[in-house]
Amino acid sequence: MDTMGAAPGTGPNTGPVSVVRRAAAKKTVADLPTDRTLVMGILNVTPDSFSDGGRFVAPPDTVVDHESAVHAGLSQHYAGADIVDVGGESTRPGADPVEPEEEQRRILPVLEALFTGGAVVSVDTRHPSTAAAAIAAAPGPEHLIINDVSGMVTAAEMPQVVADGGVRVIITHNRGDAQTMQSRAQYDDVVAEVVAELQQIRDRYLDAGVPAERIILDPGIGFAKTAAQSWELLRHLDRIVALGHPVLLGVSRKGFLGELLARSGAPREAQGRDAATLALNALAAQAGVWAVRVHDVEPTVDAMKAVGALRRA
């Protein structure tokens, strides 16, 4: 198996990180397909994410297996993921916050190896210092996207970090942090209020100098929303697409699908929600979303190719 050099500290023994195949030319966002909805693979380097937490970070002392995380990310890349989304802090409701220094310890060696392997990477972070560190680690701004789920509580410095770095940014509708978001799921008209609040967050980035074409919107399914509110938003994705920005949709394995698929009153386990996820993502692709964020990459890529072919026919 080929190897590639990695940053000091990568892997449990700080040796070179082995890769799935020989490193390819580094892709940029401009190289990604434009004839179908893109697929973003999820790579959580966390102990507590709801579906895959603990795969690469083992409690109690949070030892990070960077080599396994890199293998998983590169496997997604070679399975067809257009973007690999790396996170070092769980954003599930109720998750404990993580200090930026710990978040960076978890993800930066992984980012550097994925860039070397040719992947376009997004970084799931609410911390401006982590976004800045990721920008510094990237080969250039076209190789990186900042994915911030903070929504209405976006850190004041984040828009300027994004503007200065020249990167794209995903802004997600949300009304709180992991500890408070679900207490704020109160709407008179969830679709209209999500649209209005996304525009408010977007305007902060425009005011900071981020070009409109570098702003991606995410309706924030499951963030400060009940299951019923998430379904209502999915019924009206066209209202989000009509705002004129690329739209990312993240429904993969989320709790509202567990509720839908419950048996004997018990929600379906996270790994048993992939078929329902795929169905919603196919419908979202028909509605014109730019990308879907998923745990199960390869079948999603196949589905997006099929929907793309149907839309072109």
TrEMBL record:
<comment type="function">
    <text>Catalyzes the condensation of para-aminobenzoate (pABA) with 6-hydroxymethyl-7,8-dihydropterin diphosphate (DHPt-PP) to form 7,8-dihydropteroate (H2Pte), the immediate precursor of folate derivatives.</text>
</comment>
<keyword id="KW-0460">Magnesium</keyword>
<dbReference type="InterPro" id="IPR045031">
    <property type="entry name" value="DHP_synth-like"/>
</dbReference>
<dbReference type="InterPro" id="IPR011005">
    <property type="entry name" value="Dihydropteroate_synth-like_sf"/>
</dbReference>
<keyword id="KW-0289">Folate biosynthesis</keyword>
<keyword id="KW-0808">Transferase</keyword>
<dbReference type="InterPro" id="IPR006390">
    <property type="entry name" value="DHP_synth_dom"/>
</dbReference>
<dbReference type="InterPro" id="IPR000489">
    <property type="entry name" value="Pterin-binding_dom"/>
</dbReference>
<comment type="similarity">
    <text>Belongs to the DHPS family.</text>
</comment>
<keyword id="KW-0479">Metal-binding</keyword>
<dbReference type="Pfam" id="PF00809">
    <property type="entry name" value="Pterin_bind"/>
</dbReference>
<protein>
    <recommendedName>
        <fullName>Dihydropteroate synthase</fullName>
        <ecNumber>2.5.1.15</ecNumber>
    </recommendedName>
</protein>
<feature type="domain" description="Pterin-binding">
    <location>
        <begin position="37"/>
        <end position="305"/>
    </location>
</feature>
<comment type="pathway">
    <text>Cofactor biosynthesis; tetrahydrofolate biosynthesis; 7,8-dihydrofolate from 2-amino-4-hydroxy-6-hydroxymethyl-7,8-dihydropteridine diphosphate and 4-aminobenzoate: step 1/2.</text>
</comment>
